[in-house]
Amino acid sequence: MTQHGLFHLGGFSIEVNAAILITLLGVASCFDIKSRRIPNWLVAAGLVFSLGAHAFLGNGGFSAWALGLLVGFGLFLPLYVVRAMGAGDVKLMGMVGAFLGPASAAGAVLTTLVAGGVLAIAVALWSGALRNTLANVRSLMIQTMFRTLHGGSVRIEALPASAGKLPYAVAIAAGTFIHLLLIRSGHALFA
Fold first, then answer.
1. Which among 92, 77, 75, 99 has a CA at the least distance from the CA of 30?
2. From CA 80, how far away is CA 82, in angstroms rounded?
3. Are 28 and 173 in contact (CB under 8 A)?
4. Fewer CB in a 10 Å sphere around the end CB: N or C, the chain?
5. How much is the pTM?
6. 191: closest CA among 89, 68, 79?
7. The dihedral formed by the CA atoms of 6, 171, 36 and 89, expressed in degrees to the nearest 10
C-alpha cells in the first residue's frame, strides 16, 4: 500500500476503489452469464462500500456519491422503460455511478453503451444470429419511427425471432474498465 489509497500491481497503480469496483462487476458478470440475474445484495454491497469510500477517503462526499448514483441509474433508466434492458442492469450502472461520481459516471455509461454494441455484434456473429439481429434492429427502428410520427409510445414490442439475450453486466464491466483506463491515460471525455 502506498500513499492516497493506491497499491502497485505489476508496476501499474490501481486505486483500491477501482479494484473493488472491477471485482464487483466481475462477480455481477458471472451471475449474469450463469443466471441472467444480478443479485440485489451485490449492488447493495457496492453502494455501501462506495458511500464509505466517498465519506472517508475524501472522494467528494455524499453529494458526489448520490449524484453519481443518479447519473448512472438515470441514464440507463430509459432503456429499462422501453424494455431494452433489465432492472438489474440499471441498478448495476447506478452502483458504478456511485463509485465514480457524476461526471465519470456519464463517461462510464458512454463507454458501456459502446462496449455493449460491440459485444452484441460479437455474440451475434459467434452464435450465427447476425442476420436475425440486423433484421430485429431494422424492425425496431421502423416501428419506433412510425409510432413516434403518429404520437404513439416508444415502447419496444416483442420481436418475432429473438437473436438471444445478452448478459449486459459483461458490457457494464468492460465499459467501466475501459473508462477507467481512459481516465488513467488522460483520454476520457468525462472524468
1. 92
2. 5
3. yes
4. N
5. 0.79
6. 68
7. 80
The string of pLDDT tens digits covering residues 4-51 is: 444 444 444 457 888 999 999 999 999 999 999 999 999 999 999 999
Grid coordinates representing 71? 447519473
Residue 39: CB atoms within 10 Å: 14
The CA angle 109-189-7, to the nearest 5 degrees, is: 80
Which residue, 161, 189, 160, is CA-closest to 175?
189
Give the pLDDT band (50/70/90) at residue 155.
low
pLDDT tens digit string along 132-151? 777 777 877 787 777 777 77
93 contact partners, CB below 8 Å, separation of at least 6: 72, 73, 75, 76, 108, 109, 112, 172
Measured CA to CA, the distance from residue 25 to residue 112 in angstroms comes to 12
8-state DSSP, 4: G
SS3 6: strand
Residues with Cβ within 8 Å of residue 85, at least 6 apart in sequence: 76, 79, 168
Q: If you search the block for the grid coordinates 472491477, which residue do you land on? A: 22
Nearest one of 74, 62, 75, 44 to 101, comparing CA atoms = 62
User: Rounded to an integer, what distance in angstroms lies between the CA atom of residue 159 and that of residue 133?
Assistant: 10
Residue 78 corresponds to which amino acid? P
Contact present, 72 and 101 (Cβ < 8 Å): no
